[in-house]
Specification:
Blueprint: E1 2-8, E2 11-17, H1 23-34, E3 40-45, H2 53-64, E4 68-72, H3 75-83, E5 89-90, H4 113-127, H5 136-150, H6 155-164, H7 166-176, H8 187-201, E6 207-212, H9 218-229, E7 236-242, H10 245-253, E8 255-257, H11 261-270, E9 281-283, E10 287-290, H12 292-295, E11 298-302, E12 314-319, H13 328-341, E13 342-350, E14 365-369, E15 374-377
Parallel strand pairs: 2-3, 3-4, 4-5, 6-7, 6-12, 7-11, 12-13
Antiparallel strand pairs: 1-2, 8-10, 9-10, 13-15, 14-15
Helix pairs in contact: 1-2, 5-7, 6-7
The chain binds S-adenosylmethionine.
Length: 380
């Protein structure tokens, strides 16, 4: 990362090029933002996809004092900062713009499953991300969205762009990763974990939990809250993983928009939360920040469920609302991997609209509570 600093009259212009990689660089940037009490800042993030918590907080304070304009080049970062209530300006990219031919409208050009499959194979060969066994309909919808956004109306041109331009692939990668989540999503599932699974796990001296496809972390922090209230957090190690490295960074930051706080509190109450939801957060004007006590036992890292090899001997695995994007064959592969990653009698929790019926899951798991999609490993 490089920071370019220019001082002009009453303004300091900071341009940050590249990713913020280590705590030293982060410290340097926070220091640069603190150098002047009197001057205003113009901060431009040219390369970064992620901004760590300490910088976000500094930017927020500067903005509150009306001392800072922020510009970002990256769409993903722009959305994240906006979501947290940090106003920023999006520097739009200059795109290769191909006008649709008069007689071929975009809608008329239907993509065939075969050409998409070949395209996905090429993506895997070049970039190492394998989407060939994701649900084809969903992939096709996402590709359509990406083409409209890039204003490329011809699939072959789009294909070439993605395969030869890492930036365009990168945006498509983000389109393919759907990160919808909430605190205590499907509160009945958390009731079951609290009332049935935790009392069982409490007999262990040390507990290991894997939250796979954790997105921006709300699910794993919900879990940490119920563990804390059961006085079990300190003896638990939670692995929280996702294929998307940016959501992992957001999860580590643990900053969330305050706009959903009423819903979060409702969900927490419905999940039989015993205390006050906000006691686990520092509340800011626009966002809430997860307290360190919840983070201590969570290890966040990027990991794809398609990678070979098991992770560890877990007592409980949560993988909710991820299977819906996979075809049945891929679901079976991942179930097999979960089977190998669980200890005897281990629990698996899937999403509300997922299950083990169509993917041969009954070879590895039996139903524990079908309504909430909770299964247990078959001991062979
Ligand atoms: C809809 S979110 C679900 C978040 C959370 N589990 C919940 O239920 O609220 C799906 C997540 O799965 C992740 N995902 C998709 N494919 C994956 C893969 N192959 N390996 C790991 N995570 C994946 C996405 O990046 C996304 O964050």
């Amino acid at each position: 990362m490089t920071i370019r600093t220019i001082c002009k009259q009453d303004k300091i212009y900071l341009t940050i090029i590249g990713e913020l990689e280590d705590s030293k660089q982060i410290g340097e940037l926070v220091e640069s933002l603190s150098i002047s009490e009197t001057k205003n800042f113009n901060v431009t993030f040219l390369g970064a996809n992620i901004i760590p918590k300490s910088i976000i907080e500094k930017l927020f304070i500067l903005q509150e004092d009306k001392k800072c304009n922020i510009f970002v080049l990256k769409r993903y970062l722009f959305s994240y900062l906006q979501y947290l209530g940090i106003k920023c300006n999006y520097i739009t990219k200059k795109l290769t713009f191909k006008k649709p031919k008069d007689n071929i409208s975009y809608e008329k050009e239907k993509l065939s499953q075969e050409e998409i499959y070949i395209f996905l194979k090429d993506i895997n060969n070049i970039y190492g991300y394998d989407y060939t066994e994701y649900q084809m309909d969903s992939i096709m919808r996402r590709i359509n969205i990406a083409m409209i956004r890039e204003r490329i109306y011809d699939f072959n041109i789009f294909r070439e762009q993605v395969l030869h331009n890492q930036k365009i692939f990168h945006d498509l990668f983000l389109d393919l990763s759907i990160n919808t989540t909430e605190f205590f999503r499907d509160h009945e599932v958390f009731n079951m974990i609290k009332n049935k699974i935790l009392p069982y796990l409490n007999s262990y001296n040390h507990i290991k939990i894997w939250c796979a496809g954790c997105s921006i972390g709300k699910e794993v922090y919900s879990l940490a809250i119920i563990l804390k209230e059961a006085d079990m957090l300190s003896k638990t190690q939670i692995y929280a993983t996702d294929i998307n490295p940016y959501v992992i960074e957001e999860a580590k930051n643990g900053l969330y928009s305050i706009t959903t706080l009423d819903k979060d509190i409702d969900n927490y109450r419905n999940a039989q939360g015993e205390k006050s939801f906000i006691q686990y957060f520092d509340i800011n004007k626009n966002y809430i920040k997860v307290k360190e006590e919840l983070k201590k036992n969570i290890l966040f890292f990027q990991h794809s469920l398609l990678s070979n090899g098991t992770l560890n001997e877990f007592n409980l695995i949560l993988c909710r609302n991820v299977f819906i994007y996979f075809n049945d064959a891929l679901q079976e592969k991942v179930l097999k991997n979960f089977y190998n990653s669980l200890d005897n009698n281990g629990f698996l929790v899937l999403g509300k609209s997922e299950g083990i019926q169509k993917n041969n899951g009954h070879n590895y798991f039996y139903k524990y509570n079908e309504q909430n999609k909770i299964y247990r490993k078959i001991n062979k």
